[in-house]
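Good morning C.,

I know you're traveling, so I'll keep this short. The sequence:
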Amino acid sequence: MNSTEGNQTDHCLEFSCPERSVSTAVYVFLYVCAVTVVLLTVCGNLLIIISICHFKQLHTPTNMLILSLAVSDCLVGLFVMPFHFIWLIESCWIFGHIFCVLFNFVSFQLTSVSVGNVALIALDRYMALNHPFLYSKDISSMIIHTLIFLIWFFSLLYNFAMFYVGGNFTDLIICPGECPYVFGENSTIVDLLFVVIIPCSLMVILYIQVFALARKHANAIRELNQNKNVYKCDSMRSERKAAKVLGILVFVFLACLLPYYVCSVTSDSSYLMINNVLILFYLNSSINPIIYALFYSWFQKCIKLILSCRIMYTDCSFANVLGINK
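The C-alpha coordinates, ready to paste straight into the viewer:
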Protein backbone atom coordinates (compact mmCIF):
# COMPACT_ATOMS: atom_id res chain seq x y z
CA MET A 1 0.00 0.00 0.00
CA ASN A 2 1.45 3.37 -0.99
CA SER A 3 1.29 6.50 1.15
CA THR A 4 -1.70 7.97 -0.71
CA GLU A 5 -3.79 4.84 -0.19
CA GLY A 6 -2.67 4.76 3.44
CA ASN A 7 -3.79 8.32 4.00
CA GLN A 8 -7.16 7.60 2.34
CA THR A 9 -7.61 4.50 4.48
CA ASP A 10 -6.78 6.44 7.66
CA HIS A 11 -9.29 9.08 6.63
CA CYS A 12 -11.99 6.43 6.13
CA LEU A 13 -11.25 4.94 9.56
CA GLU A 14 -11.68 8.36 11.10
CA PHE A 15 -14.75 9.26 9.07
CA SER A 16 -18.25 8.73 10.41
CA CYS A 17 -21.58 10.25 9.52
CA PRO A 18 -22.32 13.16 11.85
CA GLU A 19 -25.14 12.79 14.33
CA ARG A 20 -28.27 14.75 13.62
CA SER A 21 -27.85 18.25 15.07
CA VAL A 22 -31.37 19.60 14.42
CA SER A 23 -34.58 19.03 16.32
CA THR A 24 -37.09 16.42 15.21
CA ALA A 25 -39.51 19.14 14.08
CA VAL A 26 -36.91 20.76 11.82
CA TYR A 27 -35.86 17.33 10.57
CA VAL A 28 -39.44 16.44 9.61
CA PHE A 29 -39.97 19.90 8.07
CA LEU A 30 -36.91 19.45 5.83
CA TYR A 31 -38.21 16.13 4.57
CA VAL A 32 -41.69 17.58 3.96
CA CYS A 33 -40.14 20.41 1.93
CA ALA A 34 -38.01 17.92 -0.03
CA VAL A 35 -41.00 15.69 -0.82
CA THR A 36 -43.05 18.75 -1.86
CA VAL A 37 -40.35 19.96 -4.27
CA VAL A 38 -39.94 16.49 -5.77
CA LEU A 39 -43.70 16.07 -6.27
CA LEU A 40 -44.04 19.52 -7.83
CA THR A 41 -41.14 18.80 -10.18
CA VAL A 42 -42.39 15.40 -11.29
CA CYS A 43 -46.08 16.32 -11.55
CA GLY A 44 -45.43 19.69 -13.23
CA ASN A 45 -43.24 18.17 -15.91
CA LEU A 46 -45.59 15.23 -16.36
CA LEU A 47 -48.36 17.74 -17.16
CA ILE A 48 -46.13 19.23 -19.86
CA ILE A 49 -45.28 15.79 -21.26
CA ILE A 50 -48.93 14.67 -21.34
CA SER A 51 -50.08 17.98 -22.85
CA ILE A 52 -47.63 18.00 -25.75
CA CYS A 53 -47.90 14.27 -26.43
CA HIS A 54 -51.71 14.20 -26.34
CA PHE A 55 -52.78 17.38 -28.12
CA LYS A 56 -52.02 17.23 -31.83
CA GLN A 57 -52.01 21.01 -32.22
CA LEU A 58 -49.02 21.19 -29.89
CA HIS A 59 -46.86 18.90 -32.07
CA THR A 60 -44.65 21.78 -33.28
CA PRO A 61 -40.83 21.79 -33.51
CA THR A 62 -40.51 24.22 -30.60
CA ASN A 63 -42.81 22.16 -28.40
CA MET A 64 -40.85 19.00 -29.19
CA LEU A 65 -37.80 20.72 -27.70
CA ILE A 66 -39.87 21.74 -24.68
CA LEU A 67 -41.00 18.12 -24.41
CA SER A 68 -37.41 16.87 -24.40
CA LEU A 69 -36.51 19.40 -21.70
CA ALA A 70 -39.55 18.36 -19.65
CA VAL A 71 -38.51 14.69 -19.88
CA SER A 72 -35.03 15.48 -18.57
CA ASP A 73 -36.53 17.69 -15.82
CA CYS A 74 -38.95 14.92 -14.84
CA LEU A 75 -36.07 12.43 -14.62
CA VAL A 76 -34.20 14.89 -12.39
CA GLY A 77 -37.22 14.91 -10.09
CA LEU A 78 -37.44 11.12 -10.07
CA PHE A 79 -33.81 9.97 -9.92
CA VAL A 80 -31.66 12.88 -8.74
CA MET A 81 -33.56 15.19 -6.38
CA PRO A 82 -34.73 12.56 -3.84
CA PHE A 83 -31.25 11.13 -3.26
CA HIS A 84 -29.58 14.55 -3.24
CA PHE A 85 -32.05 15.90 -0.66
CA ILE A 86 -31.61 12.83 1.56
CA TRP A 87 -27.84 13.21 1.27
CA LEU A 88 -27.98 16.85 2.39
CA ILE A 89 -30.53 16.36 5.17
CA GLU A 90 -28.69 13.36 6.61
CA SER A 91 -25.26 14.95 5.97
CA CYS A 92 -24.22 11.48 4.85
CA TRP A 93 -24.40 9.33 1.71
CA ILE A 94 -26.25 6.17 2.75
CA PHE A 95 -26.69 4.42 -0.61
CA GLY A 96 -23.29 2.81 -1.15
CA HIS A 97 -20.38 3.12 -3.57
CA ILE A 98 -21.94 1.61 -6.72
CA PHE A 99 -25.08 3.72 -6.47
CA CYS A 100 -22.89 6.76 -5.83
CA VAL A 101 -21.18 6.31 -9.20
CA LEU A 102 -24.54 5.70 -10.91
CA PHE A 103 -26.07 8.73 -9.20
CA ASN A 104 -23.26 11.01 -10.33
CA PHE A 105 -23.43 9.66 -13.88
CA VAL A 106 -27.20 10.21 -14.14
CA SER A 107 -26.88 13.68 -12.63
CA PHE A 108 -24.22 14.78 -15.13
CA GLN A 109 -26.08 13.13 -18.01
CA LEU A 110 -29.31 14.99 -17.30
CA THR A 111 -27.38 18.23 -16.77
CA SER A 112 -25.70 18.03 -20.18
CA VAL A 113 -28.99 17.03 -21.86
CA SER A 114 -30.74 20.03 -20.29
CA VAL A 115 -27.98 22.36 -21.48
CA GLY A 116 -28.27 20.94 -25.00
CA ASN A 117 -32.06 21.28 -25.04
CA VAL A 118 -32.01 24.90 -23.85
CA ALA A 119 -29.32 25.78 -26.41
CA LEU A 120 -31.48 24.25 -29.16
CA ILE A 121 -34.50 26.23 -27.91
CA ALA A 122 -32.49 29.44 -28.26
CA LEU A 123 -31.40 28.42 -31.78
CA ASP A 124 -34.99 27.47 -32.68
CA ARG A 125 -36.33 30.91 -31.66
CA TYR A 126 -33.55 32.66 -33.57
CA MET A 127 -34.33 30.69 -36.74
CA ALA A 128 -38.08 31.25 -36.36
CA LEU A 129 -37.68 35.03 -36.08
CA ASN A 130 -34.71 35.66 -38.38
CA HIS A 131 -35.59 33.17 -41.14
CA PRO A 132 -39.36 32.59 -40.79
CA PHE A 133 -39.96 31.28 -44.33
CA LEU A 134 -36.96 28.95 -44.25
CA TYR A 135 -37.98 27.79 -40.74
CA SER A 136 -41.58 26.95 -41.70
CA LYS A 137 -40.47 25.23 -44.89
CA ASP A 138 -37.37 23.24 -43.87
CA ILE A 139 -37.55 22.67 -40.10
CA SER A 140 -39.63 19.51 -39.97
CA SER A 141 -40.56 17.22 -37.11
CA MET A 142 -38.06 14.66 -38.41
CA ILE A 143 -35.20 17.16 -38.16
CA ILE A 144 -36.16 18.16 -34.63
CA HIS A 145 -36.54 14.53 -33.52
CA THR A 146 -33.13 13.74 -34.98
CA LEU A 147 -31.52 16.68 -33.16
CA ILE A 148 -33.14 15.64 -29.87
CA PHE A 149 -31.91 12.07 -30.31
CA LEU A 150 -28.39 13.32 -31.04
CA ILE A 151 -28.40 15.48 -27.90
CA TRP A 152 -29.31 12.51 -25.69
CA PHE A 153 -26.97 10.11 -27.50
CA PHE A 154 -23.88 12.33 -27.57
CA SER A 155 -24.50 13.40 -23.97
CA LEU A 156 -24.42 9.73 -23.06
CA LEU A 157 -21.13 9.18 -24.91
CA TYR A 158 -19.63 12.38 -23.51
CA ASN A 159 -20.46 11.55 -19.89
CA PHE A 160 -19.31 7.95 -20.29
CA ALA A 161 -15.95 9.27 -21.51
CA MET A 162 -15.78 11.82 -18.69
CA PHE A 163 -16.52 9.27 -15.97
CA TYR A 164 -14.69 6.19 -17.18
CA VAL A 165 -11.85 7.73 -19.17
CA GLY A 166 -11.24 11.16 -17.62
CA GLY A 167 -12.49 10.33 -14.13
CA ASN A 168 -10.67 8.66 -11.26
CA PHE A 169 -13.42 6.35 -10.03
CA THR A 170 -11.51 3.16 -10.68
CA ASP A 171 -8.68 4.17 -8.31
CA LEU A 172 -10.70 6.24 -5.87
CA ILE A 173 -11.23 4.91 -2.36
CA ILE A 174 -14.66 6.14 -1.27
CA CYS A 175 -15.33 6.17 2.46
CA PRO A 176 -18.73 5.02 3.73
CA GLY A 177 -21.00 8.04 3.90
CA GLU A 178 -19.19 9.95 1.15
CA CYS A 179 -20.06 10.33 -2.54
CA PRO A 180 -17.46 12.45 -4.33
CA TYR A 181 -17.24 13.10 -8.05
CA VAL A 182 -13.59 13.45 -8.97
CA PHE A 183 -12.34 14.52 -12.40
CA GLY A 184 -8.82 15.21 -13.47
CA GLU A 185 -7.79 18.79 -14.14
CA ASN A 186 -7.97 18.34 -17.92
CA SER A 187 -11.40 16.71 -17.69
CA THR A 188 -12.69 19.57 -15.55
CA ILE A 189 -11.54 22.11 -18.13
CA VAL A 190 -13.14 20.11 -20.96
CA ASP A 191 -16.41 19.81 -19.01
CA LEU A 192 -16.44 23.53 -18.25
CA LEU A 193 -15.80 24.32 -21.92
CA PHE A 194 -18.38 22.02 -23.52
CA VAL A 195 -21.14 22.13 -20.89
CA VAL A 196 -20.93 25.78 -19.80
CA ILE A 197 -18.80 28.20 -21.81
CA ILE A 198 -19.70 27.21 -25.39
CA PRO A 199 -23.46 26.50 -24.99
CA CYS A 200 -24.07 29.38 -22.56
CA SER A 201 -22.23 31.83 -24.81
CA LEU A 202 -24.33 30.57 -27.73
CA MET A 203 -27.55 31.08 -25.74
CA VAL A 204 -26.64 34.65 -24.77
CA ILE A 205 -25.55 35.64 -28.30
CA LEU A 206 -28.65 34.12 -29.90
CA TYR A 207 -31.04 35.77 -27.47
CA ILE A 208 -29.42 39.17 -27.91
CA GLN A 209 -30.20 38.70 -31.60
CA VAL A 210 -33.69 37.41 -30.80
CA PHE A 211 -34.64 40.43 -28.70
CA ALA A 212 -33.26 42.77 -31.35
CA LEU A 213 -35.43 40.99 -33.93
CA ALA A 214 -38.42 41.11 -31.56
CA ARG A 215 -38.14 44.90 -31.33
CA LYS A 216 -37.83 45.09 -35.10
CA HIS A 217 -40.97 42.97 -35.43
CA ALA A 218 -42.82 45.18 -32.96
CA ASN A 219 -42.30 48.11 -35.32
CA ALA A 220 -43.44 45.96 -38.24
CA ILE A 221 -46.59 44.97 -36.33
CA ARG A 222 -47.53 48.62 -35.87
CA GLU A 223 -47.23 49.11 -39.62
CA LEU A 224 -49.25 45.97 -40.31
CA ASN A 225 -51.98 47.21 -37.97
CA GLN A 226 -52.21 50.35 -40.02
CA ASN A 227 -52.56 48.24 -43.18
CA LYS A 228 -55.15 45.90 -41.53
CA ASN A 229 -53.00 42.84 -42.26
CA VAL A 230 -54.39 40.88 -39.31
CA TYR A 231 -53.11 37.38 -40.17
CA LYS A 232 -49.47 38.40 -40.50
CA CYS A 233 -49.78 40.60 -37.43
CA ASP A 234 -51.10 37.72 -35.29
CA SER A 235 -48.41 35.36 -36.58
CA MET A 236 -45.58 37.77 -35.81
CA ARG A 237 -47.03 38.60 -32.40
CA SER A 238 -47.24 34.88 -31.60
CA GLU A 239 -43.59 34.34 -32.54
CA ARG A 240 -42.52 37.34 -30.45
CA LYS A 241 -44.45 36.08 -27.43
CA ALA A 242 -42.88 32.63 -27.78
CA ALA A 243 -39.43 34.22 -28.01
CA LYS A 244 -40.02 36.27 -24.84
CA VAL A 245 -41.33 33.32 -22.82
CA LEU A 246 -38.52 31.02 -23.92
CA GLY A 247 -36.06 33.85 -23.34
CA ILE A 248 -37.20 33.92 -19.71
CA LEU A 249 -36.70 30.13 -19.59
CA VAL A 250 -33.16 30.41 -21.00
CA PHE A 251 -32.03 33.15 -18.62
CA VAL A 252 -33.57 31.45 -15.57
CA PHE A 253 -31.70 28.32 -16.64
CA LEU A 254 -28.42 30.24 -16.85
CA ALA A 255 -29.03 31.87 -13.46
CA CYS A 256 -29.48 28.41 -11.92
CA LEU A 257 -26.58 26.75 -13.74
CA LEU A 258 -23.75 29.27 -13.47
CA PRO A 259 -23.46 29.51 -9.65
CA TYR A 260 -22.74 25.77 -9.43
CA TYR A 261 -19.95 25.91 -12.01
CA VAL A 262 -18.50 29.09 -10.49
CA CYS A 263 -18.28 27.32 -7.12
CA SER A 264 -16.91 24.12 -8.65
CA VAL A 265 -13.94 25.92 -10.24
CA THR A 266 -13.24 28.10 -7.20
CA SER A 267 -10.46 26.55 -5.15
CA ASP A 268 -11.75 27.77 -1.78
CA SER A 269 -15.30 26.40 -2.28
CA SER A 270 -16.03 23.57 0.11
CA TYR A 271 -17.62 20.29 -0.97
CA LEU A 272 -20.70 21.09 1.18
CA MET A 273 -21.05 24.52 -0.42
CA ILE A 274 -20.96 23.01 -3.90
CA ASN A 275 -23.65 20.48 -2.97
CA ASN A 276 -25.86 23.23 -1.54
CA VAL A 277 -25.45 25.40 -4.64
CA LEU A 278 -26.27 22.36 -6.78
CA ILE A 279 -29.79 22.46 -5.31
CA LEU A 280 -30.36 25.72 -7.20
CA PHE A 281 -29.65 24.01 -10.50
CA TYR A 282 -31.95 21.10 -9.69
CA LEU A 283 -34.69 23.55 -8.70
CA ASN A 284 -34.63 24.83 -12.28
CA SER A 285 -36.47 21.61 -13.16
CA SER A 286 -39.24 22.75 -10.80
CA ILE A 287 -39.30 26.32 -12.10
CA ASN A 288 -39.77 25.50 -15.81
CA PRO A 289 -43.39 24.23 -15.48
CA ILE A 290 -44.22 27.37 -13.45
CA ILE A 291 -42.91 29.53 -16.31
CA TYR A 292 -45.14 27.69 -18.80
CA ALA A 293 -48.16 27.92 -16.47
CA LEU A 294 -47.69 31.68 -15.98
CA PHE A 295 -47.10 32.68 -19.59
CA TYR A 296 -48.63 30.01 -21.87
CA SER A 297 -52.41 29.99 -22.18
CA TRP A 298 -52.27 26.65 -23.98
CA PHE A 299 -50.61 25.04 -20.96
CA GLN A 300 -53.21 26.52 -18.61
CA LYS A 301 -56.00 25.06 -20.77
CA CYS A 302 -54.23 21.71 -20.96
CA ILE A 303 -53.91 21.57 -17.17
CA LYS A 304 -57.66 22.13 -16.80
CA LEU A 305 -58.45 19.43 -19.37
CA ILE A 306 -56.06 16.92 -17.79
CA LEU A 307 -57.10 17.51 -14.18
CA SER A 308 -60.80 17.36 -15.12
CA CYS A 309 -60.14 14.10 -17.06
CA ARG A 310 -61.63 15.61 -20.21
CA ILE A 311 -58.67 14.31 -22.21
CA MET A 312 -60.34 10.90 -21.97
CA TYR A 313 -62.87 12.05 -24.58
CA THR A 314 -62.18 10.71 -28.06
CA ASP A 315 -62.12 14.13 -29.76
CA CYS A 316 -60.07 15.91 -27.13
CA SER A 317 -56.79 15.70 -29.04
CA PHE A 318 -58.06 17.78 -31.95
CA ALA A 319 -57.08 21.39 -32.49
CA ASN A 320 -60.44 23.03 -31.74
CA VAL A 321 -60.36 21.87 -28.12
CA LEU A 322 -57.59 24.25 -27.10
CA GLY A 323 -58.75 27.10 -29.30
CA ILE A 324 -55.25 28.53 -29.72
CA ASN A 325 -53.14 29.64 -32.64
CA LYS A 326 -49.79 28.48 -31.37
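Safe travels,
E.
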